């Protein structure tokens, strides 16, 4: 898995609203109604991470969820990170209000 | 819920191995076999947080889980934080290996 260049990352981020390159990782923050909603989404994400064998650096405080994705072995952002980011977006977009 | 004094916190921390007062919060880090084990414990903790209506500031990277507890409304550590910390310890101690 090869580290993407900044130009490649910029191109791909154009199709991924709400995410940005921050400190060598793809990063976003979601805000939910409450803790239960935030953790419900985390659980759905967790299963997909396990299936993709790729895991986030994430933190949660009550209704807020911050997610950072990078590929440690490659020393940067790779296709694996974009794949997981797209999966997360798909889960969020189908999350019940 | 009243903020505890540093002396009160020190006394109580003596009975709570692995936790420390750090930047105005009770803090600890757990390390598990892998992501699945870490997230399993997070899920068990999440239900208890919801039941206690008290929520952590926590972050996870693969098999590591960092937890910080304080009571925002009181501006520091209260009995609620110790109660949740003790609950978390009880869950960890009964976690299957």
User: How many strand elements of chain A?
Assistant: 4
| Spatial shape of chain A | globular
Low-confidence stretches of chain A: none
Would you tell me the structural class of the helices and strands of chain A?
alpha+beta
Counting copies of identical and different chains, the oligomeric state is homodimer
- How many domains of chain A, as an integer? 1
State the helicity of chain A in percent bands. Answer: 40-55%
Q: Which architecture name of chain A does CATH use?
A: 2-Layer Sandwich
Q: What percentage of amino acids of chain A are in beta strands?
A: 15-25%
Element pattern of chain A in H and E: HEEHEEH
Which features does this protein show?
42% helix, 97 residues, alpha+beta, homodimer, Gyrase A, domain 2, 4-stranded antiparallel sheet, 4 strands
Quick synopsis:
In chain A, β1 (20-22) and β2 (25-31) form a beta hairpin. Chain A has helices spanning 6-13, 35-52, 79-93, and strands at 20-22, 25-31, 57-61, 64-69.
Structure description:
The structure is a homodimer of 97-residue chains. Chain A has 97 residues and is an alpha+beta fold. The first copy, chain A, has a single domain, classed as Gyrase A, domain 2. Helices cover 42% and strands 22% of the residues of chain A. Chain A has 3 helices and 4 strands; from the N terminus they run H-E-E-H-E-E-H. In chain A, strands 1-2-4-3 form a 4-stranded antiparallel sheet. In chain A, a hairpin with a 2-residue loop joins strand 3 and strand 4. The longest helix of chain A has 18 residues. Chain A is globular. The N and C termini of chain A lie far apart (36 Å). The mean pLDDT of chain A is 96. At the A-B interface, helix 2 and strand 3 of A face helix 2 and strand 3 of B. Strand 3 of chain A pairs antiparallel with strand 3 of chain B. Chains A, B: Its EC number is 4.2.1.96. Chains A, B: Keywords: Lyase.
